[in-house]
């Protein structure tokens, strides 16, 4: 180890994340020739190409894949040793957290998180925007994102995650709706006029996928981008909204069990392993898990 520059492992970890030498150089705030030089030295150390240039970027060799997790864990320990003596006081802290969340996650998370912030951390700020799943690990590793809240479809050794919310879907309707006091059958459900919330212009939601198993299709009369708008429309019409119970209970609506099985909404909290010991990250992680 005395013969190896430990900075080379930081370069390795960044190339492994970015899959691109130019992007790795930007992330490390050094020149691309410096990254190329470091990669050459790494290749001599491991007697392997480590990364092969392809049309899809710098793809890791089996040797690189084999050491990547250990390198990331080691860097995380070094980072933790620097951060562990830092203190974090949420009452006086003034920083901004960057989240990647879907519209559904925002609608569920933010109405409960911000009252908590007002009481316990009034100077903290949060920015939320959606990042595509295949880009999440890169943004988390760069520090451009602190957290992501998404369904459990992200598997990467550089990322930690924990289940945050698991909730069943219900049919929400206005109080006084003709079916508010009746058992909701599949036939009655399909005859209702439905609102579907999605940021996409087209495509099926989880409820529609579940209905396909019954060879059934609901009538979507309104498609909108935001749940608050959908809830307002439901409150004043006979249209209905099928959403997780946790979200529907935020509004003054009547909730009826669905007459068919829909897999529950499952949201996980994701963060980069290098943030495991960051006191501010740890505080917010533990707070979110306690809140939900």
Characterization of the model:
The protein has eleven helices and twelve strands. With 292 residues, it is α/β, with parallel strands linked by helices. It has a five-stranded mixed sheet with strand order 4-3-5-12-6. Strand 8 (193-197), helix 8 (206-212) and strand 9 form a beta-alpha-beta unit. Helix 1 (7-18) crosses helix 3, helix 1 crosses helix 4 (62-83) and helix 2 (21-28) crosses helix 3. The mean pLDDT is 90.
Strand content: 15-25%
> How would you sum up the global shape?
elongated
| Biggest β-sheet strands, sense, barrel | 5 strands, mixed
Mean pLDDT: 90
Distinct helical segment count: 11
Question: Which blocks of ≥5 consecutive residues have pLDDT under 50?
Answer: none
Question: Can you give keywords for this protein?
Answer:
alpha/beta; elongated; 12 strands; 11 helices; five-stranded mixed beta sheet; 292 residues; 43% helix
């Amino acid at each position: 180890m005395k013969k190896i520059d430990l900075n080379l492992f930081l370069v390795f970890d960044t190339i492994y994340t970015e899959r691109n030498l130019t992007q790795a150089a930007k992330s490390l705030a050094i020149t691309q020739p410096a990254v190329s030089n470091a990669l050459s030295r790494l290749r001599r150390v491991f007697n392997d190409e480590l990364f092969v240039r392809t049309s899809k970027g710098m793809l890791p060799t089996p040797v690189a894949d084999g050491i990547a997790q250990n390198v990331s864990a080691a860097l995380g320990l070094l980072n933790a040793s620097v951060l562990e003596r830092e203190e974090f006081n949420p009452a006086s802290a003034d920083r901004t957290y960057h989240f990647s969340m879907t519209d559904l996650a925002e609608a569920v998370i933010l109405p409960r998180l911000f009252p908590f912030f007002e009481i316990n951390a009034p100077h903290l700020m949060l920015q939320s925007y959606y990042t595509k799943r295949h880009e999440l690990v890169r943004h988390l590793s760069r520090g451009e994102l602190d957290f992501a809240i998404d369904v459990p479809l992200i598997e990467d050794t550089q990322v930690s995650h924990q289940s945050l919310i698991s909730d069943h879907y219900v049919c929400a309707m206005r109080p006084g709706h003709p079916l508010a006091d009746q058992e909701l059958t599949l036939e009655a459900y399909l005859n209702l006029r439905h609102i579907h919330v999605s940021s996409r212009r087209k495509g099926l939601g989880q409820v529609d996928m579940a209905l396909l198993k019954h060879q059934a299709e609901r009538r979507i009369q309104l498609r909108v981008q935001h749940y608050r708008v959908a809830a307002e429309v439901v409150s004043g019409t006979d249209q209905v909204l099928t959403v997780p119970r946790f979200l529907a209970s935020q509004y003054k609506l009547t909730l009826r069990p669905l007459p068919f099985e829909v897999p529950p909404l499952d949201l996980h909290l994701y963060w980069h392993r290098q943030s495991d010991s960051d006191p501010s990250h740890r505080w917010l992680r533990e707070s979110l898990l306690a809140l939900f």
